[in-house]
Amino acid sequence: MEPDTSVSIRFPTKFTGRKFDGQSGPDDENSGTKDKCEENEVYSMQLTRAIDDLRRAHTLCDVVLQAGTTRLSAHRAILASSSPYFYALFAGPLAHTNEKCVKLHGLDGDILTLLVDFIYTGEIAVTDDNVQALLPAANLLQLIIVRNVCCKFLQSKLHPSNCLGFLRFADLHNCPDLSKVCRQFAEKHYLEVVKDGAEFLTLTSEELETIISSNDLLVDEYQILQSLRQWEYHDPIEREKHAKQLYRHVRFPLISHEYLLELYKSVSFLASKPWCMHYLLEAFTYRSLSLEQRLEFPEIRVRAGPRKVMLVFGDEASDAPVCHLEIYDFHSETWRSLSVEACAEEALNFTRKECAVTVVKSLIYVLGGYTAMGISRSVDIYDPNQNVWKAGPNMLQGRYGLGVCLLNGSIYAAGGSNGVQRLESAEVLNLASGRWSFISHMPSARFRFSLVTMNQKIYAVGGLDCPNAVHSYHPLTDSWTALPNLPALEAPSCCTLGDQLFVIGGYSKSYGRFEGTIYSYSEKSGQWSRRGVLTVGRKNAGVIAHEGCLYVVGGVGASGLLASVEKYDPSSEESTELPEEMKFGRAEPKVVIIDLQRSLD
């Protein structure tokens, strides 16, 4: 059987063609520009146009190119200077010097017309309809610029429904850069590729093995296993013989214990794959090891390295424990529950109210709050990658309703209440020494307020006792400075992004309503500015910055506890709700972003 030399590619929607001016390709976009005087540019354009006019008028032409029934007059010198292919054809040792008509086999006449037009004008229109024939023709005639433009065009049209077809096409026509981009796209959007199914189910075992063996695959092992079973069931008789080779790339120890048990108890699964019992037993053994023992198996690690996720916990309105966590995967845009296997102190098994959190190198520090045991000065550290808690150094003073932030490798805790009075005291934890020490008191006591950092300073914003007040703290001078008051709203959310301090939402006692207004403070101008509005007014929401946007999480609105999350983009001053809500509505949720290195299963 002769090898298949054709690949069909598809486009999910219709796109307009892109016109290329021939002045630069994707490899030289950043190579800089040459200074040209306007007269030279005009001359070059006139010369190009004049030469093309000569061709179209068949003037001074000395060769005819033929593809099928299409015949095109041209100039040997122009063609030879345009590509190595034509140079070898007309000026090389085996040159066709005497032939008036040169037949180019395997080329479509319309495509040859486009390429000759490009040689004379430097312009070509790449479209969905012609790119599949244009790229291999450009390869054949060694018109590298056109080949690169076609590759760039295909990259812009990548979609989960066509990326595998594009990958085959790129490999067939020796386009390594396009092939790399297609493979990376398939790895990043693997779940969508599998869900579409049309191209995924046609993969050969070798093609599928190349993808699932990649360490850059952005997906959980359970989902990889499910995709393998889906691929296998599409043609069970033929594909069963490849299963053993493919399953060896699944990292079974990273699959949830519950699903491993399900496979273990499945008579039909093990009957068809008795060799899989080895993988299951290996996984059970690994999951029974201590965290220290697991480190001895570096090959068993989550693919694609750490990924940014948003972790949300706490719910001041329904007495939910701190250990009840939800996690949002920015890539899949889905929420998952994250079970916590162990707690460092017995107190963490109880409701922990009005604590504060911060993140240090993906370790989540939970400070203060109150439980059934009283006001806490404890610091507990949760490692989401190892899924364990441990105790940290206690604060000097018990606090709840406090503010906490991280600056220059130190954790600052300020304000709150000790159960008797509101506090103006503040303290700092040196993470290197593990010791707390007091710093200058805030100008006034603060309770249920925000403590954030910006431009190497700490900002104390709002609070029940001083809802309008804003003060900044400079660690070098150990001093606090009053700043312009913020708009009078109860329980807004606060976050910094770049050199802007944002205050979001809150409750207006004057109007008796939940607000969604967004304000920002610029240290440079020293003024507050209105910057947009949320789609849903809310107070007591969590807020965090990620990739140039703010995520406003939960809170309390007119309908009660909110499970929705809004994404606010300061550049457009627009806010949109995420397509999927949290499982639970939450007031005053604790929100952090971490680099998660382990599987969620």
Write the layout of secondary structure elements.
Layout: E1 18-20, H1 38-56, E2 63-67, E3 70-74, H2 76-82, H3 84-91, E4 101-103, H4 109-121, E5 124-126, H5 131-140, H6 144-156, H7 163-172, H8 176-188, H9 190-196, H10 205-212, H11 221-234, H12 236-239, H13 243-247, H14 257-265, H15 267-272, H16 276-287, H17 291-294, E6 307-315, E7 320-329, E8 334-338, E9 356-360, E10 363-367, E11 370-371, E12 374-375, E13 379-383, E14 388-392, E15 403-407, E16 410-414, E17 426-430, E18 435-439, E19 450-454, E20 457-461, E21 470-474, E22 479-483, E23 493-497, E24 500-508, E25 513-522, E26 527-533, E27 542-546, E28 549-553, E29 556-557, E30 560-561, E31 565-569, E32 574-577, E33 590-596
Parallel strand pairs: 2-4
Antiparallel strand pairs: 1-5, 2-3, 6-7, 6-33, 7-8, 9-10, 10-13, 11-12, 13-14, 15-16, 16-17, 17-18, 19-20, 20-21, 21-22, 23-24, 24-25, 25-26, 27-28, 28-31, 29-30, 31-32
Written account of the structure:
This protein has 17 helices and 33 strands. The chain has 601 residues and is α+β, with helices and mostly antiparallel strands. It folds into three domains: 18-26 and 37-157, Potassium Channel Kv1.1, Chain A, CATH 3.30.710.10; 203-294, Serine Threonine Protein Phosphatase 5, Tetratricopeptide repeat, CATH 1.25.40; 307-596, Neuraminidase (6 Propeller). Helix 5 (131-140) runs antiparallel to helix 6 and helix 7 runs antiparallel to helix 8 (176-188). The chain is globular and about 105 Å long. It starts with 17 loop residues before the first strand and ends in a 5-residue tail after the last strand.
